[in-house]
Amino acid sequence: MRRYLYILVLLLSVTSLSAQDYGIDLYNNRRMIVSVDYSAFNWSQGNVAGITASLNLFGVYADVGFNTQGNHLLKSDGQYRNGYKVMSYHIGYTIPITHRFRIIPILGYMNWQSGGYSCSSKGDFTPSITEKKIDYGFKASYEVFEGFCVSATLQRHIVGFGVGLCFNAEDWGN
Description:
With 174 residues, this protein is mostly beta strands. Helices cover 14% and strands 59% of the residues. The chain is built from two helices and nine strands. The chain has helices at residues 2-21, 74-77; strands at residues 31-41, 48-57, 60-69, 81-93, 95-96, 101-117, 125-145, 148-155, 158-168. An eight-stranded antiparallel barrel has the order 1-2-3-4-6-7-8-9. The longest helix has 20 residues, at 2-21. It starts with a helix and ends in a 6-residue tail after the last strand.
């Protein structure tokens, strides 16, 4: 695990230095991007769909992903059902390649629970397997036109595609 963190820190350092060498203008980070992604959590072992909401403000990226699957099946027949609960949190920093295209190295955490929902009226969840994982990867964002962007995420445990709204942060004070 430490090896992966060292590699990620090294890649971020080299990317930052090479951005200065090639004249990448970090002034393009003066944007706010609000995005919603349709994500596949734990995609390498057991694919569970979920939603990831992200905020990118002045180049600083943060997201929260979640899913609760299986509870809606209780209402139909009241039987004990298998289900999942997934939460993920990530942070990163945006590297603008062009004015419209950005790459965001991401580091975060994912909590995966697999278990069952009881047949009670509340549908209580009892986890049988809990996995806590460090997650890392990148997100690519492309501003299709002024105010609208699309994104793709590829991480160790999460894959996703999304849409978002882009705002120019310079205009806030005017």
